[in-house]
Amino acid sequence: MQSLQFDIANQDLIKIGLAIVCGGILGVERQYKNKTAGFRTIIVICVGAAIFTNIAQRFGGVGSMNIVTGVGFIGAGVIFKDNIGVSGLTTAAVIWVSAAIGMAVGSGNYTLGLVTTGATLTVLIIFNVLERYIDKVHKDKLFLIEFTNADYENLEHLRNIIKAHELKADTVQISKKNGCLHAAVWVTGHRKKIVKLDELLLQMPEVKSF
């Protein structure tokens, strides 16, 4: 009986250790990019999922799927939405995947946990490089522009300029404050042309700030 207890304890330690390794690998990538959920957070989530799964297995697997629900609340906490857009979706997805990896490790599927960790890290790194390459030739930029007055013609003039530079513009929000027109405009197109638009906006007397 003592030998059996010793073997079980070793297995538990292996699961915890491997969960720390897998969570740490993904956590380093998030920490390096200065994301909301970084190194320690991802490790703790992965280890927690492994422990919950390990315990649930001893009770016939009851309650293991509740981990998914619990992680959903954590993931929602790193997603931020405003009137302009949404951020934090990738970090929330990493939290979700790290919990899944923890569950795999906690259930004894070490190979699955390690392979998934490697695959996830590959996606985060290689696809990030691909995104940066795409960003060089195709960029989206949000311009928050404040005009010197409330004349709507200034915005129309700006739209014509953007179109003349072979860029696409989408006006997200328009408001008026202190006698000045404020506009949030998404501009899409070649990176170099957007840089030229930046330089042109600096020279426009009707643009107070952007």
Sheet with the most strands? 4 strands, antiparallel
User: What is the residue-mean pLDDT, rounded to a whole number?
Assistant: 81
**Overall strand count:** 6
Number of helices: 7
Poorly predicted regions are 1-6
Shape: elongated
Q: What's the number of domains? A: 2
From the N-terminal CA to the C-terminal CA, the straight-line distance is: 73 Å
String of helices and strands: HHHEEHHEHEEHE
Protein structure class: alpha+beta
The proportion of strand residues reads: 15-25%
Rg value: 25 Å
- Helix content bin: 55-70%
Biggest β-sheet: strands ordered side by side in the sheet: 4-5-3-6
Please, could you describe this protein's structure?
With 210 residues, this protein is of the alpha+beta class. The protein folds into 2 domains: 130 residues, no CATH class; 72 residues, Alpha-Beta Plaits. It is 64% helix and 17% strand. The strands form 2 sheets. It has a 4-stranded antiparallel β-sheet with strand order 4-5-3-6. A hairpin with a 2-residue loop joins β4 and β5. The longest helix is centred in the first third of the chain and has 31 residues.
Question: What's the arrangement of secondary structure elements?
Answer:
Blueprint: H1 2-32, H2 39-58, H3 66-76, E1 80-81, E2 86-87, H4 89-106, H5 110-137, E3 139-147, H6 152-164, E4 168-177, E5 180-189, H7 191-203, E6 207-209
Antiparallel strand pairs: 1-2, 3-5, 3-6, 4-5
Summary?
The chain is α+β, with helices and mostly antiparallel strands and 210 residues long. It has two domains: 6-135, no CATH class; 138-209, ACT domain (Alpha-Beta Plaits, 2-Layer Sandwich), CATH 3.30.70. It contains seven helices and six strands; from the N terminus they run αααββααβαββαβ.
